[in-house]
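Can you please make up a protein's amino acid sequence together with its fold in token form to help me picture the idea?
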Amino acid sequence: MARAGSGTQASGAGEGGGAAVWLLAVGQTVVYAGSYYAFPALLPELEAATGWSKATLALGPSLAFLIMASLTVVTGRLVDRGLGGEMLVWGPVLAALGVAGMALAPTPAVWLAAWALVGVAQAGCLYETCFAFLTRRLGGGARAAITRVTLVAGFAGTLAFPLGHWVGERLGGQGGLAVFVGVTLLAMPCNLWAVRSLRRRERAGAAPVPAPSGVLAAALRRPAFWALVACFGLIWLNHGVLITYVLELFADRGAGPAMAATAAACIGPSQVAGRLLFMLGEARAGNARATLIALGGVVAASAVLWLAGLAPVLVFGFALAQGAGAGLMSILRPVLIAEILGREGFGTISGAVAMSPILASAVAPALGAWMLVAGGPVAVYAACLAMALTGWTIAALLLRFRAGEERG
């Protein structure tokens, strides 16, 4: 395959990538459902099938995220060199091999090895690479394309949790993972067609332009870089803990298995609803205000989940607020990085910033398991609320300071 994602804006960028962007959206949906959400969707069945503890099982996704974080700067540079398309095409195949290894794992050591493979794959084929690829290809028109991708990919959890509930009951945890292998593989043909289509839109003679030397070092000297790192890290740590143990936490709040699975499945549509509201009101809200609203939704979600012990139906309120807030942040994260830190060397800088939320996602399963053992669900509710409040405060201070700089 020829290189995809050159440094110039495509001649068809005004159209936002057309059908190619929608196919990338489908590719992101199935790869997230198959390799990311499969674990929380099948966690109760995996415990029963393997006899391993939550902490042992959680080491798998933690390892995958650690590997993913260690590779994000590398994959970002590969995007800057025009190789984002190749990673999007072949990453899902590698991820599917990893999920197959998880399904067949007879020991924790094999389980971890399979997750390590998934981590390598996810570094090259999830949101970070997709968004950097689109930003590089479409320039200022990338936000509309990113929004389209996230509108569709927001249904990954909606696909994974009911499917996991259904196959888990019939095939068990590891048998259910075998089904998710097929789900993950569906991303490959979708991304292949999309990347080829976007490559055909390139201007004749356009060549990939690598990021200027020193662009990352310059970004690391800016306080705004570290503020973004801290904010995104805290929010994704909150989200990772809550999503990994969502079924167990819902059960603690008094929700039955069917209600818990239904409410968890609502997180995806809530992500889509939040993004649609942003699209409808973005001219009035702006990115800064939308960021504070989105982070406020995450704060509200943690508070509502804690209160759901008084009325289990409030787990649906959690799903609405968490899905809308975190879903909107998925759009705003690359936009804020580009606006605050610039588009020059975007893939490299975005990859560096992404280390924080990815590391947070790596820590989240193990941290959640430790908190559940040490302090029970109440410790999780309190810690996640504190994470969300701190993230919102950092973002508010950063955006206020930036607004003052622009006025000055």
About this structure: The chain has 17 helices and no strands. The CA atoms of residues 95 and 132 lie 20 Å apart.
